[in-house]
Write a structure and sequence with these properties.
The protein is an alpha+beta fold and 888 residues long. The protein has 7 domains: 2-130, Rossmann fold; 140-183 and 499-586, Orthogonal Bundle (Topoisomerase I, domain 2); 191-255 and 393-472, Topoisomerase I, domain 3, CATH 2.70.20.10; 262-390, Topoisomerase I, domain 4; 601-718, no CATH class; 722-782, no CATH class; 789-872, no CATH class. It is 35% helix and 22% strand. It is built from 25 helices and 34 strands. The strands form 10 sheets. Strands 9-10-16-15-12-17 form a 6-stranded antiparallel β-barrel. β4 and β5 form a beta hairpin. It is globular.
């Protein structure tokens, strides 16, 4: 009996069917060891010795694998065909050696790019040894990430309270997002005008020509800079005579793009399907590991962590055959297409992402997949198929028009195109690229999608209308996940398998926010980036990070020794960190005040000094560091207690000409005579009654705009909570108020949510009693188990089906009587089976739940242990996904 070790239980299940009864296939459930998140896990002074720790969920897995290894005739390591897969095999092998489970048994390493029967059997027939340089590259990458994170992060904590951490790749990705935001802030719109003429041929067919030349000068988009110029040109065009100078039709060919890599798949899935990078990888993982297709479990796509763009020769042959059958012989090019990647540091040996069989048309497998799986499979199939199809044949027509009016002349251009043969476009049309900034330059291709009527050279055309329109240049667009991934790949920073985790880490640490699929830096993220650029500039430089990535790739190819790379890096890095110990917080604040001036001190409408304190004479505003992070405050503290949340300003909302930071007086409270004012604080705008410690304050509720707040609304907010009336049954008061979690009703110690602040201000007794009753009834029902959002599969130890549910305190995973809360920020839709198993196993071990299933104990003892452990149960801690590259 041979033991085959893979990383995924789904993969194990599929492969076990292919290999038969002479093999035992066990899963490690991803990485079995990791560096403990504490000082001393990597020791530079001891030649970079690394201290590995086996996670609790992995301890039992490894014991089972070790027991099976002792009984096996041979050990076959069959983890994924990338650096992470090689590392998992190395870790498992190291643990088996420590447990003395190997003896003199042969150990083989096999890799396959697709989980199909033929691919698995071919790989088993061609074993190799563990790739030591690939493992070395993993060790170097892991050590670098640890050393950067655990050396830089304490510096941030000391010098920049509120900052959480820094990382080798995540800090560079954050810099890109922050720099783009800075470009947008500094951008000054430029006015320009477009002029065009609607013309008609002698045959009565109309078309539009755009102004391209005036008085002998070529024009670009910004040439006509104001309305006066536009009006003068328009007057000339109104009285002009028009003649066709030339008509040229140029046939062109458009070639298809290569099959997907990891990053291009994430970009296309974002643009076409609206998937996040992490969601794309989760769905792709399931398609790769195997789906039940009509009673046969088979992997539908090849391995999805790759930057190669080539397909295997046999796959190209199959694709060409499928193209002929589906589209016709004309769509099959004379020769197969060959692609090479333009990305830096790409590993060309890896195959691109493609269907494992081109004969499995998306429509044929759709009924076996859920909606997201079907859509992503269709995307992969179409792109890979299109990559081997014939070019599209397009005819582009350009008509040059001359306009003359009393000695003045102008040139106009009309363009259009016709697709004569769609070629690969019949299968796949590329997604729009939203990553490039708009430079305001001219574009001759704006009308290329138009089809021109028949236009003859030297014929006269009639003017039907002259049109002019005012425009302003736009700032560069914010990055989306897709365009940021594309930029990182172009710069050669990070690896395809790390991008999704890196972006998720930045969001979890509240450095960036994904707003309507656009990435915006939080104030905390901009502070961290500014700090690193001022005091650790070398380590957030794009070229430096890309060069380090190149060195890691050279380690994997055996060209460099991994510890030599670590020594060179650590020598300079540790010296630089040591020099920051003398850095004073005042030096940090001075640098950040200058670097982030537009964010910290926004310009005021009255033109006054943005750094002057609006509350006292002589006070200067500056960045301050407090217990809960950074804010803007006055230099005259404690005499002046003016503070403002970063980026908060009333300047865009002010209606009375008041200074952006100055409290706006709303009126006087008729009951107390105190002044009611609108102010800006660290946590946003609020209303205040009176001054000093006795002043009452109330934050503006969601949906209320500062510019619309008047005395009446201010008094309403300050009167909360208000008494709605006495409950007819209990005789106790019902209160309506605005709390931390929004509008609410409160009665007899119980709370019920209200939808809007208007409900708080207007709700009557009858409606309040009804809402409380409905909440009570709903609460009784909610004590039952919530409906499952998704079913992931079977738990191998606890038994039963694993489901994802949304409970009163947030989403969680469940199996039997064991519940485990998902980590903060984790999308319930992106939870994998391996992540769920790890969370539930740890939860069960902490609480004692499921022991009667997991261990062969007498029933009575197991139940007693569960009951004793239950009261001491704690919330499940955050866990890293068992199989995904660490965010760098």
């Amino acid at each position: 009996m041979d033991l085959v070790i893979v990383e995924s239980p789904a993969k194990a299940k599929t492969i076990n069917k292919y290999l038969g009864s002479n093999f035992t296939v066990l899963a490690s459930y991803g990485h079995v060891r990791d560096l403990p998140a504490k000082d001393g896990s990597v020791l530079p002074d001891e030649d970079f010795a690394m201290s590995w720790e086996v996670g609790k969920p992995s301890q039992k897995r490894l014991s089972e694998i070790a027991d099976a290894a002792k009984k096996a005739d041979k050990i076959v390591l069959a983890t994924d065909p990338d650096r992470e897969g090689e590392a998992i095999s190395w870790h498992v092998l190291e643990v088996l050696r420590q447990k003395r489970a190997l003896g003199k048994k042969p150990v083989e390493r096999v890799v396959f790019n697709a989980i199909t029967k033929s691919a698995v059997l071919d790989a088993m027939a061609k074993p190799r040894e563990l790739d030591v340089p690939l493992v070395d590259a993993y060790l170097a990458r892991r050590a670098l990430d640890y050393l950067v994170g655990f050396t830089l992060s304490p510096v941030l904590w000391r010098k920049l309270p509120g900052a959480r951490s820094a990382g080798r790749v995540q800090s560079v990705a954050l810099r890109l997002v922050c720099e783009r935001e800075g470009e947008i802030e500094r951008f000054k719109p430029q006015e320009y005008w477009n002029l065009s003429v609607r013309l008609a041929t002698p045959r009565g067919d109309e078309f539009t020509a755009r102004l391209s030349e005036y008085d002998g000068k070529k024009l670009n988009r910004l040439s006509v800079a104001n309305g006066d110029q536009a009006g003068d040109i328009r007057a000339m065009l109104d009285g002009a005579r028009y003649r066709v100078a030339s008509v040229e039709a140029k046939p062109t060919r458009r070639n298809p793009g290569p099959p997907f890599t990891t990053s291009s798949l994430q970009q296309a899935a974002s643009a076409k399907l609206g998937f996040s990078a992490s969601r794309t990888m989760q769905v792709a993982q399931k398609l790769y590991e195997g789906m039940d297709i009509g009673g046969e479990t088979v992997g539908l796509i090849t391995y999805m962590r790759t930057d190669g763009v080539q397909m295997a020769p046999e796959a190209v042959t199959e694709a060409r055959k499928a193209i002929g059958a589906a589209f016709g012989d004309r769509y099959v090019p004379e020769k197969p297409r060959f692609y090479s990647t333009k990305a830096k540091n790409a590993q060309e040996a890896h195959e691109a992402i493609r269907p494992t069989s081109f004969s499995r048309h998306p429509k044929d497998v759709e009924r076996f997949l859920d909606r997201d799986q079907a859509r992503l499979y269709e995307l992969v199939w179409k792109r890979a198929t299109a990559s081997q199809m014939a070019s599209a044949e397009i005819e582009r027509t350009v008509a040059e028009i001359e306009a003359e009016n009393e000695g003045r002349s102008a040139g106009l251009r009309a363009t259009g195109q016709v697709i004569r043969f769609d070629g690969f476009l019949a299968a796949y049309v590329d997604h729009r690229d939203d990553s490039a900034p708009k430079d305001g330059g001219a574009s001759d291709d704006e009308d290329d999608d138009n089809r021109l009527p028949r236009i003859e050279a030297r014929e006269t055309v009639d003017k039907r209308a002259v049109e002019s329109s005012q425009h302003f240049t736009e700032p560069p667009p914010r990055y989306s996940e897709a365009s940021l991934i594309k930029k990182l790949e172009e710069l050669g920073i990070g690896r395809p398998s790390t991008y999704a985790a890196t972006l998720q880490t930045l969001q979890d640490r509240e450095y960036i926010v994904n707003d309507k699929r656009k990435l915006l830096p939080e104030a905390k993220g901009r502070l961290v980036t500014a700090f690193l650029q001022n005091f650790f500039e070398r380590y957030v430089q794009y070229d430096f990070t890309a060069d380090l990535e190149g060195q890691l790739d050279r380690i994997s190819s055996g060209e460099l020794l991994w510890k030599d790379v670590l020594r060179d890096f650590w020598r300079e890095f540790s010296s630089h960190v040591e020099s920051t110990k003398e850095l004073r917080v005042t030096n940090v604040l001075d640098a950040l005040n200058d670097d982030l001036a537009p964010l910290l001190f926004p310009a005021r409408e009255d033109g006054s000094d943005p750094r002057s304190c609006p509350r006292c004479d002589g006070g200067r505003l500056s960045l301050k560091l407090g217990k809960f992070g950074a804010f803007v405050g006055c230099s005259n503290y404690p005499e002046c207690n003016f503070t403002r949340q970063l980026g908060t300003s009333f300047s865009a909302e002010a209606t009375d000409g008041a200074s952006a930071d100055e409290p706006r007086e709303l009126g006087t409270d008729p009951a107390s005579g105190d002044v009611i004012s609108l102010r800006s604080g660290r946590f946003g705008p609020y209303v205040q009654r009176g001054e000093g410690k006795e002043a009452k304050r109330s934050s503006l509720p969601k949906g209320w705009v500062a510019s619309e707040i008047d005395l009446e609304k201010g008094l309403q907010l300050l009167s909360l909570p208000r008494e709605v009336g006495m409950h007819p049954e209990s005789g106790k008061p019902i209160l309506a108020g605005l709390g931390r979690y929004g509008p609410f009703l409160q009665h007899d110690g119980a709370y019920a949510n209200l939808e809007t602040i208007e409900d708080v201000l207007t709700i009557g007794l009858n409606r309040a009693v009804t809402v409380i009753a409905e909440k009570k009834e709903k609460g009784a029902r909610s004590r039952s188990t919530p409906a499952a959002i998704a079913t992931l599969g079977e738990h191998p130890d606890l038994g039963g089906s694993i489901t994802v549910r949304d409970g009163r305190f947030g989403p969680y995973v469940n199996v039997g009587k064991v519940n485990a809360t998902l980590p903060r920020g984790k999308d319930p839709a992106s939870v994998t089976l391996e992540e769920a198993i790890a969370l539930l196993t740890e939860r069960a071990e902490k609480t004692g739940a499921g022991k009667s299933t997991a261990r062969a104990k007498p029933k009575a003892k197991a139940e007693t242990a569960t009951k004793k452990a239950a009261p001491k149960a704690k919330a499940a801690p955050k866990k890293r996904a068992p199989k995904s590259a660490a965010a760098e």
